[in-house]
Task: inverse folding
């Protein structure tokens, strides 16, 4: 079953309302396969072979985003050394123009311990690349719509493409169908394309110098975020969710839920659940020290026993809520929620329990 | 007969008063409830008497640069006196520089082990003091359950507080506790006091300054006062925290009380939104006739101004303006209430000196423009 995990199916459908498939804007092929078996190399006797520069191995060639280490380049004889793609007299079948031209490289087999699965770099020197990369080239029709290599790279490396590819991953490698069906904004304007292009060029410049935290990088990323959030019509919640996915690492807790900041949760208090709206995902609480009932979103920290009216709990949350007299609706900064002891007792029994401690 | 309390001699002159450090008392504006902070800036100590708003108390402790929170006294177990105590004990560590959390002191109430409900108080309240706010019915059990849990987890910090003729000060370490004297209830009177309501078992304390004193009376009512008066002579004080938010006392009883104590300042901790009609008209009538007493109600009520809530924003604005002029101003913000004196801060030096509110500001900027039906005697 094709089951979506990052976003629900209807969210993808909504998002696609403003998109076309990537294949409508770019052609994608795997890099060339050298192979080891001579019998698979069908052009060993090609009459006009040529020696071409050759890039292979993602970790060596693209050690960091947007950067290609050309010092790692070697050479091969084209097409004699190759199994794929096959040389063809039919220009429509011959893929050498894609191999030999400017192109966007995408890691074929990205490191699965990171949420950033789509890693791109723009290859501008016409070096041939191995099948450790996908190659994407904007179609002529797309280039007429101002979709340049930089625009393509910006879209491919952004959060929507990344999440879409993850939805497809049954193994670490990226299947062609995933690339070809990436939602691509249908109506990028010339100005938006220009902004994306300039930002991507900026990112490349900074990447050459291994600067990933500079002000220029931040500004470029902000520009790309702004353009693409608008182009995809993303609401803030969806964007934050996609960004969280992209920022995953193997060292982080594997959850899509926003995690509480326990340092912020410093005020010890108690409360009683007034009512729960499961459809809205909200819970209304009476909390000691607040004049009004507090309605907040249900968060992962709230255990099942708590999701019923009358449940009495102890917890901590930021003191600033006490000062303000209200709890942030979207707050996740709840400390552990645990049942409040003694709440089953009558007032008289409670008084007895209390005074017993004083003898 | 041997166990009966012996009337004390005048408490005012017992000790060498001049050697005492200056003590400050803050009656926080917390609405229809009590939250009182006794502190000494010389020794950086504080003792809390009742608490319903832990956050406001902690802000005050921070402002006063308190290092040692010696203890918390709960005068009696009505929610409008203990509702914030557990939160205070659980959170006081957030106050910068505070090093000691102190102890929790309660009256001894062996009768509370009985499953029987307590007798009603004079004005008809049940043992569980109901507050007219959202979730009120949850406040008392939730706060009480938290207090019980804290007590179980901090047994060594739980101390009885009772006047038995031998222990005269709260059982707290430090020097501030030596300025506080236990007056009521005497342990031999417990059973009789319980029969006339929990309010009458309120712990009554005298706080002594260098040459002035304040009487903190909890919610004691006239019947309970009789016991106190019989046990102690010379109860005169400079500052009286009027019992029970000014309720349950009529004009005659109030006059007897004031004649006996002869205070120069009377503080009534009362809430705008109280549904009990506190303070009673008899209390106001008695106080109005006494030009030598300055009356300070933390909040205004409908008796002072029709639709008193409508004055709230203007009064708050004036208090905020004043707070910018004076470092002494302290305003815990509370919704649904209209401050009059707001938080009252009094220094017990050679005489009782009201630091907040400043008298002219209080009379001219707060009372006269906002509360047309006020019951104060504004002779300065």
Result:
């Amino acid at each position: 079953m094709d089951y979506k995990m990052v976003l629900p199916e209807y969210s993808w459908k909504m998002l696609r309302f403003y998109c076309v498939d990537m294949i409508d804007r770019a052609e994608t092929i795997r890099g060339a396969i050298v192979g080891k078996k001579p019998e698979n190399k069908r052009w060993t006797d090609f009459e006009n072979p040529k020696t071409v520069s050759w890039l292979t191995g993602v970790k060596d060639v693209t050690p960091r985003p947007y950067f290609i280490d050309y010092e790692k380049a070697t050479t091969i004889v084209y097409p004699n050394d190759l199994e794929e793609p096959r040389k063809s007299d039919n220009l429509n079948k011959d893929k050498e123009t894609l191999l030999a031209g400017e192109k966007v490289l995408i890691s074929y087999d990205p490191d699965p311990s990171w949420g950033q699965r789509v890693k791109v770099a723009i290859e501008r020197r016409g070096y041939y690349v191995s099948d450790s990369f996908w190659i994407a080239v904007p179609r002529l029709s797309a280039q007429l719509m101002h979709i340049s290599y930089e625009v393509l790279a910006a879209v491919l490396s952004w959060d929507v493409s990344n999440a879409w590819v993850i939805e497809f991953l049954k193994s670490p490698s990226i299947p062609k169908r995933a690339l070809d069906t990436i939602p691509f904004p249908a109506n990028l304007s010339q100005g938006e394309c220009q902004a994306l292009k300039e930002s991507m060029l900026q990112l490349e410049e900074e990447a050459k110098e291994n600067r990933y935290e500079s002000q220029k990088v931040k500004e470029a990323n902000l520009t790309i975020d702004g353009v693409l959030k608008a182009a995809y019509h993303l609401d803030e919640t969806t964007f934050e969710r996609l960004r969280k996915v992209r920022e995953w690492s193997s060292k982080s807790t594997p959850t899509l839920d926003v995690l509480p900041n326990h340092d912020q949760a410093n005020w010890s208090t108690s409360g009683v659940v007034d009512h729960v709206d499961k459809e809205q995902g909200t819970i209304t609480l009476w909390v000691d020290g607040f004049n009004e009932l507090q309605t907040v979103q249900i968060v992962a920290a709230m255990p099942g026993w708590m999701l019923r009216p009358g449940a009495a709990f102890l917890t901590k949350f930021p003191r600033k809520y006490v000062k303000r007299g209200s709890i942030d609706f979207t707050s996740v900064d709840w400390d552990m929620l645990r049942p409040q002891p003694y709440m089953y007792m009558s007032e008289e029994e409670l008084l007895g329990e209390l005074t017993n401690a004083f003898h | 007969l041997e166990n009966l309390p012996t009337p004390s001699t005048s408490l005012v002159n017992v000790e060498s008063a001049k050697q005492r450090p200056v003590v400050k008392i803050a009656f926080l504006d917390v609405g229809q409830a009590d939250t009182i902070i006794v502190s000494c800036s010389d020794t950086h100590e504080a003792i809390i008497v009742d608490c319903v708003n832990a956050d406001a108390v902690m802000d005050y402790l921070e402002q006063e640069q308190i290092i040692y929170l010696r203890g918390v006294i709960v005068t009696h177990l009505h929610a409008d006196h203990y509702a914030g105590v557990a939160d205070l004990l659980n959170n006081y560590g957030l106050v910068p520089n505070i090093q000691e959390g102190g102890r929790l002191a309660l009256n001894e109430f062996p009768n509370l082990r009985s499953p029987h409900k307590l007798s009603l108080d004079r004005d008809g309240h049940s043992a569980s003091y109901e507050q007219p706010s959202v979730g009120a019915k949850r406040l008392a059990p939730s706060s009480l359950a938290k207090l019980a849990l804290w007590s179980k987890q901090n047994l060594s910090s739980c101390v009885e507080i009772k006047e038995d003729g031998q222990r005269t000060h709260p059982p707290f370490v430090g020097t501030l506790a030596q300025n506080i004297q236990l007056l009521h209830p005497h342990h031999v009177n417990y059973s009789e006091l319980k029969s006339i309501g929990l309010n009458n078992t309120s712990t009554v304390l005298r706080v002594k300054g260098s040459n002035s004193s304040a009487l903190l009376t909890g919610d004691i009512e006239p019947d309970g006062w009789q016991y106190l008066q019989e046990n102690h002579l010379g109860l005169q004080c400079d500052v009286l925290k009027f019992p029970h938010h000014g309720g349950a006392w009529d004009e005659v009883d109030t006059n007897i009380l004031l004649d006996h104590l002869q205070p120069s300042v009377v503080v009534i901790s009362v809430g705008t939104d109280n549904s009990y009609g506190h303070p009673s008209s008899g209390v106001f009538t008695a106080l109005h006739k006494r030009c030598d007493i300055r009356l300070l109600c933390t909040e205004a009520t409908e008796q002072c101004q029709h639709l008193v809530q409508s004055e709230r924003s203007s009064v708050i604005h004036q208090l905020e303006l004043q707070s910018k002029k004076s470092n002494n101003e302290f305003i815990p913000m509370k919704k649904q209430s209209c401050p009059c004196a707001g938080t009252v801060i009094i220094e017990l030096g050679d005489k009782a000196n009201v630091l907040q509110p400043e008298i002219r500001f209080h009379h001219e900027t707060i009372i006269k423009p906002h509360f047309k039906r006020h019951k104060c005697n504004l002779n300065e």
